[in-house]
């Protein structure tokens, strides 16, 4: 019958060939006026799927009447008879079909209508189920994604083996500052907050500025709530460090106005590690009662958003504050000393040394949707304020303690203003163009009796243009280019105390002056371009292949250009090079996706080539600074990187699911006259994650109970850079139980999770504490209770 | 499609090529340092000589050594803050923090090197705990270090300003 109807339509369309044609463009929105990507739009003789911004265009609609229908899972099908007597611009609001809405939402958003890079999207519900202390850790199971941990309460993201400044974190449209700085600086995000997190792998610099050579971690909290007041409450308990925490979320909407707010409080004690002693700077340091002394801390986070939903636009203002105070293990801060690691009988006190980390941000996001255009404007200001406190100590006998705050070792205060504008224009069903500008300005101030980071001013401005072409439903192409202008001015810092110390040691005036220049004054401008081209081919019903090629760059940081001194903790004398050029990386990757209703397989091999990868090179020259070995100089080297990510998901049998994610990566420098083909530092070993889940209903309750067993495996890392340690492989076991239930009519969920169940002593090769030989946290049993109201 | 067909194997091949390329020059094994004397926590007096003897070995080729002796100001409970409060006290004794930095090149293609040094403790060396570190690097820049603690004791008068004892 259907075939017959189709044939009839085709015949009809032939017969009316000579008539006048018009163009019909539409915007499909849901009940919250949010665009619905991936909805199916059909006229009598054409069909299409809405793009990422919920838009569709038909260019050749014959004058007359046509039936138009828009359908999307979870929503009632929209049907109308369209009278085409000119160009039409439509706005279509879908009404939810109340059954199974939440499940469908996820599926709908997951649809990738735009071609492009290998990416994974994780939603709040899943994030909460996988909750593991920090946002980054909660994402750890994703292939191609690793965490660089600093104890139990802070971590930073690593994508494709690249971290620090090679990964960009975008929070509600704007680049978040912070995690890319020091090795002991985690990502400052409330772990309960994110509604949606996207991991984009590959050099995705076009829309978010340079630096995103490894990839982007994109966080958003912009979904407007339903009418009325609603919210949720989370209660958290962890055994590894006796965390007690809670998070209260409250949101409301009245017609077009809405608000969202969250308050999170967490307090934790010293965490447990499965060892009785560690080795730090060749000394055995006892770990009393297998708890890492002074690793206790607390997190107090606040979030507030207010917004307005217009007919074709929406806007919101978001304010947030993340505040963490956490201790450092005194046995590995400065010179090893047994007296300081003695059990003080209190596992919850935060003594010196400790850090105070504060991130305050204010963001405004505005989006305008029309059937042809999407315009976005994001403005923001953020302040990173990080302090390290440690009892005043000096290696230079002649240094007096400061008058005020004698125990403030380091203080880093960065203010960043950002503005982004983006315009996406779809003029035909096959062509869309996106263009935008980004601007960022920042200034850093420092304080404290120690010196690490120079003060600097940095401005970065860039513009991009991107073209999407979709000749038919099988092929999609995209290409874009971006240009950035970055200016970085670092202030020099001359330390007369150190100069005098060197002179007292009998060094020459020249040597003393060199060492006393703790920061080299620089004034650099980096102008560079990035580009990206991609193609996606829907090879069949279930198979999709995409290919991406691109080139991206990263401007050297203030430390890489101007540092000169000992980086405490690593005890390395690090020396910047004011003449470094921007790091350029070329990359190519292929993603193969196979997707049926029950099975999803994705394989993505990739390769990178860096013309000048910036790394710390051991010079073999001894530093005259006390307690220091050789000087490490920031240097450039040609390097290659390659790897493959595999992920597999299958519903094996009704009620049984399996998930396997694996990653293998390889990198090395290209041998040069003064440098052999060494592996790059901080490279994660081959690793994998496997989870088997049993789902069942224990009553007529709609939601299912989940019972999972999982295992995380890492190979040993024997390919190391110079002065790194090889790290043995490990196998960890974990489990999770998720039970939905109702308390006095409120939807609730109990999540009981076990991490490292066998209490295995293992090291994460890329963690901050690896070099200090501090193993990762031991067994953790975690309870997370969620009540929705 | 045709393009993809070629590019995909090319990327895989590139990856494999990179994986199989020559690692021969790569040396990431650090030297090993063994301090024969002095012993950890050995006690000395101002004016005495420390006979430092360390054996440094490497799997390929040693490049240079360094020793560093430094007063452990961190270890004392209140470090400089206390020192300042007791400033007069310290001056009264006329003691100075003793600091040694010595380094040397290890000539020739050597895998084992015996480091022997005579280090005289100055008469006015401030008594207390000192860290003695021996460092070594090989030709590739792999660094090793070994730390021990030594005590410089004041045998003339055991007075009150040794808070910890």
Automatic annotation (TrEMBL), chain A:
Subcellular localization: Cell outer membrane
Domain TonB-dependent receptor plug: 118-216
GO cellular component, one term: cell outer membrane
Keyword S-adenosyl-L-methionine belongs to the record: no
Entry's Gene Ontology molecular function annotations: siderophore uptake transmembrane transporter activity
Keyword set, alphabetical order: Cell outer membrane, Membrane, Receptor, Signal, TonB box, Transmembrane, Transmembrane beta strand, Transport
Pfam families reported in the protein's UniProt record: CarbopepD_reg_2, Plug, TonB_dep_Rec_b-barrel
Topology in membrane: Multi-pass membrane protein
The keyword Hydrolase belongs to this UniProt entry's keyword annotation: no
Residue stretches making up the TonB-dependent receptor-like beta-barrel domain: 341-757
GO BP annotations, alphabetical order: siderophore transmembrane transport
Gene3D superfamilies xrefs: Carboxypeptidase-like, regulatory domain, TonB-dependent receptor, beta-barrel domain, TonB-dependent receptor, plug domain
Similarity section: Belongs to the TonB-dependent receptor family.
Protein name: Iron complex outermembrane receptor protein
Provenance organism: Natronoflexus pectinivorans
From TrEMBL, chain B:
UniProt xrefs under InterPro entries: DUF4625
One Pfam match: DUF4625
Organism the protein comes from: Natronoflexus pectinivorans
PROSITE patterns per record: PROKAR_LIPOPROTEIN (PS51257)
Protein's UniProt name: Uncharacterized protein DUF4625
Signal peptide: 1-21
Swiss-Prot/TrEMBL keywords: Signal
């Amino acid at each position: 019958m259907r075939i017959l109807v189709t044939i009839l339509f085709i015949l009809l369309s032939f017969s009316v060939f000579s008539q006048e044609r018009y163009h019909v463009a539409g915007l499909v929105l849901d009940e919250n006026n949010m665009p619905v990507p991936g909805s199916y739009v059909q006229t009598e003789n054409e069909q299409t799927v809405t793009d990422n911004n919920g838009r569709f265009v038909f260019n050749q609609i014959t004058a007359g009447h046509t039936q138009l229908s828009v359908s999307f899972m979870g929503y009632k099908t929209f049907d109308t008879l369209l009278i085409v007597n000119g160009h039409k611009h439509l706005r279509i609001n879908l009404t939810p079909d109340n059954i199974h809405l939440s499940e469908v939402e996820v599926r709908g958003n997951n649809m990738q209508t735009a071609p492009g890079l290998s990416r994974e999207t994780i939603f709040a519900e899943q994030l909460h189920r996988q909750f593991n202390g920090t946002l980054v850790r909660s994402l750890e199971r994703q292939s191609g994604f690793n965490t660089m941990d600093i104890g139990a309460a802070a971590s930073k993201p690593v994508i494709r083996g690249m971290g620090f400044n090679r990964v960009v974190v975008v929070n509600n449209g704007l680049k978040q500052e912070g995690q890319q700085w020091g090795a002991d600086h985690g990502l400052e995000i409330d772990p309960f907050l994110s509604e949606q997190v996207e991991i984009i792998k590959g050099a995705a610099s076009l829309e978010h500025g340079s630096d995103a050579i490894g990839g982007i971690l994109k966080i958003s909290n912009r979904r407007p709530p339903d009418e009325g007041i609603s919210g949720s409450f989370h209660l958290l308990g962890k055994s590894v460090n006796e965390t007690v925490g809670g998070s209260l979320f409250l949101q409301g909407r009245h017609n077009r106005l809405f608000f969202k707010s969250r308050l999170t409080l967490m307090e934790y004690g010293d965490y447990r590690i499965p060892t009785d002693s560690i080795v730090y700077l060749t000394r055995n340091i006892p770990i009393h009662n297998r708890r890492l002394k002074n690793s206790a801390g607390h997190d107090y986070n606040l979030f507030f958003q207010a917004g307005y939903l217009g007919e074709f636009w929406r806007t919101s203002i978001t304010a947030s504050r993340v505040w963490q105070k956490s201790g450092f293990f005194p046995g590995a801060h400065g010179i090893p000393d047994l007296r300081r690691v003695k059990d003080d009988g209190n596992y919850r006190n935060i003594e010196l040394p400790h850090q105070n980390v504060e991130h305050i941000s204010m963001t405004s996001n505005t989006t305008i949707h029309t059937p042809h255009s999407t315009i976005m404007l994001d403005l923001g200001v953020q302040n990173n304020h990080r302090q390290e406190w440690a009892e005043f100590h000096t290696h230079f006998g002649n240094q007096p303690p400061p008058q005020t705050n004698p125990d403030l070792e380091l203080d880093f205060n960065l203010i960043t203003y950002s503005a982004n504008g983006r315009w996406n224009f779809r003029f035909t069903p096959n062509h869309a163009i996106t263009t935008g500008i980004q601007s960022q300005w920042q200034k850093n101030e420092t304080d404290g009796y120690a010196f690490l980071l120079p003060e600097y001013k940095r401005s970065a401005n860039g513009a991009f243009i991107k073209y999407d072409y979709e000749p038919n439903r099988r092929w999609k192409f995209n290409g874009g280019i971006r240009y950035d202008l970055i200016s970085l001015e670092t202030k020099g810092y001359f330390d007369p105390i150190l100069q005098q110390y060197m002179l007292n040691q009998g060094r020459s005036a020249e040597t003393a002056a060199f060492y006393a220049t703790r920061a080299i004054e620089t004034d650099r401008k980096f102008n560079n371009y990035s580009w990206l081209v991609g193609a996606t081919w829907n090879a069949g019903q279930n198979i999709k292949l995409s290919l991406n090629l691109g080139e991206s760059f990263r401007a050297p940081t203030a430390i890489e250009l101007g540092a000169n001194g000992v980086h405490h903790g690593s005890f390395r004398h690090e020396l910047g090079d004011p003449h470094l050029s921007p790091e350029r990386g070329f990359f190519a990757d292929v993603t193969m996706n196979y997707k049926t209703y029950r099975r999803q397989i994705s394989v993505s091999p990739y390769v990178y080539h860096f013309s000048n990868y910036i790394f710390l090179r051991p010079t073999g020259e001894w530093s005259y600074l006390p307690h220091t070995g050789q000087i490490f100089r920031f240097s450039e080297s040609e390097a290659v990187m390659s790897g493959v990510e595999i992920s597999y998901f299958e519903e094996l049998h009704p009620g049984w699911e399996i998930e396997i994610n694996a990653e293998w990566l390889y990198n090395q420098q290209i041998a040069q006259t003064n440098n052999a083909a060494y592996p790059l530092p901080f490279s994660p070993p081959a690793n994998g994650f496997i989870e088997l889940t049993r789902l069942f209903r224990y009553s007529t309750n709609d939601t299912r109970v989940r019972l999972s067993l999982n295992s995380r495996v890492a190979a040993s890392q024997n390919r190391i850079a110079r002065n790194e340690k090889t790290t043995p492989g490990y196998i960890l076991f974990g489990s999770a139980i998720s039970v939905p239930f109702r308390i006095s009519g409120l939807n609730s969920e109990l999540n009981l999770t076990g991490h490292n169940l066998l209490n295995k002593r293992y090291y994460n090769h890329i963690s901050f504490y690896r070099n200090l030989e501090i193993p990762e946290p031991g067994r953790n049993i975690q309870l997370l209770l969620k009540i929705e109201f | 499609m045709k393009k993809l067909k070629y590019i995909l194997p090319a990327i895989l091949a590139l990856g494999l090529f990179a994986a199989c390329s020559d690692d021969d020059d790569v040396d990431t094994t650090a030297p090993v340092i063994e301090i024969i004397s002095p012993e950890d926590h050995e006690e000395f007096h101002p004016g005495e000589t420390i006979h430092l003897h360390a054996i440094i070995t490497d799997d390929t080729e040693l490049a240079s050594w360094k020793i560093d002796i430094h007063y452990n100001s961190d270890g004392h409970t209140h470090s400089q803050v206390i020192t300042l409060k007791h400033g007069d006290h310290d001056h009264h004794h006329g003691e100075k923090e003793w600091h040694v930095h010595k380094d040397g090149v290890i000539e020739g293609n050597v895998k084992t090197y015996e480091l022997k040094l005579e280090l005289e403790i100055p008469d006015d060396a401030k008594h207390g705990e000192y860290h003695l570190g021996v460092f070594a690097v090989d030709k590739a820049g792999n660094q090793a270090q070994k730390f021990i603690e030594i005590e410089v004791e004041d045998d003339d008068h055991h007075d009150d300003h040794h808070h910890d004892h």
